[in-house]
């Protein structure tokens, strides 16, 4: 009897800890050091690229919370009133935790769901790959500005050539990182976005892209990126349109 009561108690605890139901999201945010009353805006992007507000709340005692419904993962942003940058993250079913860094919005942390944890890890890896390019820009920014003011084309061209070389090198390494990630993370929303991006490249390897798509988790194939990939693959594999048949001899002019 005691065992049954304990099991029932555990079930009640588990149910009470589950703050979100199916197709629901909960954003639990911390805004340490940010004044009460500051506005937090949850934004999404429409088909034209314009940012549209989905929800708005006020900071209270260093915290904020948003709750709503969503049927599939999608990129959203958090905009803090007065901040120059936005916080990108993946809004999906589950509890998303956002810790805003008021001194450096780019250092804000998002976690709590599978796709957001993956997004943070993926970004960290890509940053490592692109570090060489960023270091070059930081190191040579002052020299480039001085050369432009002095109209020193020799220095300008030299820096540009070196920059282009590093840019190409980083581009190849980044592309390899994207593909490697997609091959090993079939359940990640980021993988669907990577495949979609690959198909926008005129030199895309259709067979490779199709193989990655076929390996995607079925739930991702039903998302907007998943449907777009399927449509794009069908278009790319379709035979070239045949020209219109010539008009009958009697109708020729």
Layout: helices, strands, pairs:
Elements: H1 2-17, E1 24-30, E2 39-45, E3 51-58, E4 63-69, E5 74-80, E6 87-91, E7 94-99, E8 109-111, H2 114-150, H3 153-184, H4 189-199, H5 206-214, H6 218-221, H7 224-237
Parallel strand pairs: 1-7
Antiparallel strand pairs: 1-4, 2-3, 2-5, 5-6, 7-8
Helix pairs in contact: 2-3, 3-4, 4-5, 4-7, 5-7
Structure, explained:
With 253 residues, the protein is an alpha+beta fold. The chain has 2 domains: 94 residues, Immunoglobulin-like, CATH 2.60.40; 121 residues, no CATH class. Helices cover 49% and strands 20% of the residues. Strand 2 and strand 3 form a beta hairpin. The N terminus is likely disordered.
Which descriptors apply to this entry?
253 residues; alpha+beta; Immunoglobulin-like; four-stranded mixed sheet; four-stranded antiparallel sheet; 7 helices; 8 strands; 49% helix
